[in-house]
Design a protein that fits this description.
By secondary structure, the protein is mainly α. The protein has one domain. It has helices at residues 3-27, 34-40, 44-65, 75-95, 104-128.
Length: 134
C-alpha cells in the first residue's frame, strides 16, 4: 500500500469513528455534559453543535484531500454537502430517540460548523499556503 493510500485509509477510519461518536452522542436521551453545560454556558447546545460539526468537516476534508489519485471535484463544496447531509440525518435520527427532538436550529449550527471549516481552509490555502492546493 502506497503512502498516499495509507494516509487516506487512516483519515477515513478517523472520520468514520468521529461520525460514530456523534451518532452515539445523539442516541443518548441525555448526552454527557448537556445538563451542566446548559446551566453554565449560554447557548451550550449551539456551541456544541458548531464545534462537533467543525471537527467532522475537518475529518471529511482531510480524508477527501488524501483521496488516491486526487479528486476531480471541488472538495470544499463536497465536504460541506457531506457534513450537512450527515447533520440532517442525525437530526432525523434524534426524532426517534426518547426525550430528543428534530430541530432545524441544530441543522443550522451543524452547517455553520462545516461552513466555518470550509471557508477558513479555503482562505488559508488560497492566500497563505498556496503549496497545499491540488
Amino acid at each position: 500500500m502506497g503512502a498516499e493510500k495509507k494516509w487516506f485509509v487512516v483519515f477515513l477510519v478517523i472520520t468514520i469513528l468521529y461520525a460514530a461518536m456523534i451518532f452515539a452522542l445523539s442516541s443518548s436521551s441525555d448526552p454527557p455534559g448537556s445538563a451542566e453545560g446548559r446551566r453554565t454556558v449560554p447557548y451550550f447546545s449551539h456551541v456544541a453543535h458548531t464545534v462537533l460539526y467543525f471537527g467532522l468537516a475537518f475529518c471529511v476534508f482531510e480524508t477527501l484531500r488524501r483521496y488516491p489519485d486526487g479528486m476531480e471535484t471541488n472538495i470544499y463544496a463536497l465536504t460541506f454537502v457531506i457534513v450537512v447531509l450527515y447533520g440532517v440525518s442525525d437530526e432525523v435520527h434524534q426524532h426517534f430517540v426518547p426525550y430528543r427532538t428534530f430541530m432545524l436550529i441544530d441543522i443550522f449550527f451543524n452547517s455553520l460548523g462545516a461552513g466555518i471549516l470550509v471557508t477558513s481552509r479555503f482562505i488559508l490555502e488560497k492566500y497563505f499556503n498556496p503549496c497545499t492546493l491540488r
